[in-house]
Structures are given as structure tokens and as C-alpha cells.
Amino acid sequence: MTLIALNADVLVTMDAQRREIRDGALVAEGPAVQWVGPTAELPPQYRRMVDDGSAQVLDMRGRVVTPGLVNTHHHMYQSLTRAVPAAQDAELFSWLTNLYMLWSHLTPEMIAVSTKTAMAELMLSGCTTTSDHLYLFPNGSRLDDSIAAAQEMGMRFHAARGSMSVGRSKGGLPPDVVVEDEAAILRDSQRLVEQYHDSARHAMLRVVLAPCSPFSVSRDLMRESAVMARHYGVSLHTHLAENDNDIAYSREKFGLTPAQYAEDLGWVGHDVWHAHCVKLDDEGIALFARTGTGVAHCPCSNMRLASGIAPVRAMRDAGVPVGLGVDGSASNDGAHMLGEARQAMLLQRVGYGPAAMSAREALEIATLGGARVLNRDDIGALAPGMSADFVAFDMSSVGYAGAGHDPVAALVFCTPANVAASVINGREVVRDGELLTADLPAVLLRHRALARTLFERASVGA
Ligand SMILES: [Zn+2]
């Protein structure tokens, strides 16, 4: 199937020259981009297909087209526990402690429906590829539940098999009821990789090994996971250096900074990315740059939990791969990818001055940056051979009024808008602002009921 997008006010390529094409067009065949350029220069064979109706044509007049945004960190099940009163005003460790017991009542259906809900929100906000870090599996839940949801939604997905194994009785943070046995974690990780991981170009599904954090799993599990990941060629992901308590825990338990601990465990390299890294020190930044270790920067979550300002400017200057993450919906109660890019830009300016990050750099981090963090070279830019993942924003909406001087920068400077159109892997998934792959009102109705059920079970059962 050939898909031809025409007449975009501007087509942002993020290609090697960072071209922004006025009156741009794009041709996709199946999952891949075949041609990108000005609409007036569309090759004759494609022009004929537009004229004879043999291609699917998307008119992008009045719209800015960009590569699909890449979300590198999320906990989608948390969309059931937004704005929980007991966890509204806490820092990380007490926030977690207030939520763990609630999450212990999750069911497979809750995982599936919350994943669909979170993906709908992401897709409408410009995201086409996402990772999800699921690290609790109560009541028979499995990573398969979120994988099935992603396939239904049509989103490109990096499913991170999280885990927690060190409960409170062993000096960890989580209550014992939500931790798993380490041998079982490794067995299930192996099963998931063998069953689902697709290493091919344009893969829609990859599996990631992702023990939750240094304060909830053992040294052994971190090491064993790294060995398994290298054996299968899959990526590794965890939380690192999120706030001052996190640093204190690392120094006290391991006698190392988080970056030193990561290096000691084999958790550095282009196949590894760490969420947050708000407190990554200069030595850690140099280590990450040298090894190509990635960072998922989550500005809204960092502000929400008062964790601090991640040194993204210094990371980027040193050459550390940086992508964006909305983080779980319980620590960023909104999960808008374009909004996250805006906050990334604003927060660097708060920390390091008005020149610390431009709108275009924020967009680059949200696209190419995320692709690099996920260890992919087939997404994040629109050029021949890249995956056909792109989104379009309607510049006639009130939020962009008066911003025609620079519509590309406007995407980041103005109030974040939802997309008018989205194409993932050559397939149209949003048309005129409506999601095509799910009955969203029905999903949200069920989601609301399940969120209520979760609270009822927790108040009775805990
Ligand atoms: Zn997280």
C-alpha cells in the first residue's frame, strides 16, 4: 500500500541536514518512507497515483508534519492512579510507599485497559513509539497484557519487563507482597524475549529487560539481566540517580554513586538507558558519554516530585544520548509528549539560562534523541528507508494564532496541541484528531470503572 502525504505547510525531517521543507510531501510504501521533498517535486509515478486514486492520499494543508515523537519512559498502569490524594504532595520514596499497596490490587484487565488508555493519550499527543516499564505483576498480570494492548492500538512498542525482588523485609523499599522471586523473573524475561522480541528494521515490538531500580532489586538480578540482555541482543532499562535520597541509598548500600554502581554491574552501553539521572554527576556524565549510555529525561515528573533539574544541557554537550519520557501517570498526571518537549525546554532554561535549550533542540530530543536512546536507527527522522511514523499538527487552532512566523518553534513554545493526524508504520491511526484504532469513549468508560474498583479493593483488602 502506498500512502502519500501532500501540501504540508512545513515538513520537519530531522534528517542529517535537519531540513524543514516548505509545502512538503512524503511517500510511504508499506512500513517505510520512500521519498520526501517539496510537493511540487513529487516524482511522476507518485503524481499519477495521486491522480488515479491508487494511493492513499493525506492532504496536510494548514498542518506542520514532524517525525512521530518517541516516549522512552512510562508506567502506563499508573493512569489508574492519577491525582491520588495521599500521593499528591510527596517526594519519590514516600510517594512510592503510599502507592505500592494500592498497585498490589492490579489485575490483568486493569493492565490491558490502562495501557490502551495511556497509549491513546500518547498517540493523540504526537507519540508514535513508546516504551512502557511494567514492574509489578499482581493477581496473574503479565507483560503479555500490555503487549496485546499495544498491538490493538497499533503503536510501536518497547515493552520493558520490569521487576522488584528486594522487599521491605530484606531492606528494600517495596512491601514484600509486590516483589517476585529472582529465578522466576529471569525465566519470565527469557520467555518474553523468545516469544515477542523482533530485532528487524521497522519492528513494531521489542522486549527490554528492566529491573525496577537499585533500591528494589539485588545486585545479582541486575548482573544476570545484563548477561541475558547481551545474549539476546535486547536493551536494558532502569531508574537511576532520581533524587537525593536515591543517591544516599546508593552510597549507603553499595558504597558507590549510581553511575559507578551502573558501571560495576555492566549497565552501561548503547543498549542501556536509565530514567531520570537528575543527580548524575560529572563523572557519570563522562561515563555515559564515553559508553553511549542513554538517559530518559522526564521533566514533568522531576518537577512534580521535586527531584530537581536534570543536567540535560551538560549531558547533550558531552554527547550523552538523551530522550524524553512522560514517566508514569502517577508522577506526571498528564502524559502529553509534545507537552513534555515544551517542559524540557522550559526547565533547562530555569536551571541554566535562556539559551540552555531551543524549541528545535527540544523537538530533536523528542524524536531523534528518543530513537537513539531506544537503540534504533529506523525511527525519529523522515527520510527514505526510515519507518513511516509521522504526525501532523493543525496550525489553524487558536493555540497557534499569531505564531505563523515560525510554525515549527510554535509547536514547542505554544500550548501543546493534540495531533490532527498520525501515521505509524505506514498506517493511518489518527484522522482529523480522532483515534482510528480504538473506541476511545468505551475504553475510557471501562478505565474509569476499573480505577474505582482498584481503590475499593485496596481499601477493603489491604
Ligand atoms: Zn519511572
Automatic annotation (TrEMBL):
GO terms for molecular function: deaminase activity; hydrolase activity, acting on carbon-nitrogen (but not peptide) bonds, in cyclic amidines; metal ion binding. InterPro entries: Amidohydro-rel (IPR006680), Metal-dep_hydrolase_composite (IPR011059), Metal_Hydrolase (IPR032466), MTA/SAH_deaminase (IPR050287). Its EC number is 3.5.4.43. The keyword Zinc applies. It is an enzyme of class 3 (hydrolase). Keywords: Hydrolase, Metal-binding, Zinc. The keyword NAD does not apply. Residues 64-429 form the Amidohydrolase-related domain. Belongs to the metallo-dependent hydrolases superfamily. ATZ/TRZ family. This is HYDROXY-ATRAZINE ETHYL AMINO HYDROLASE (AtzB).
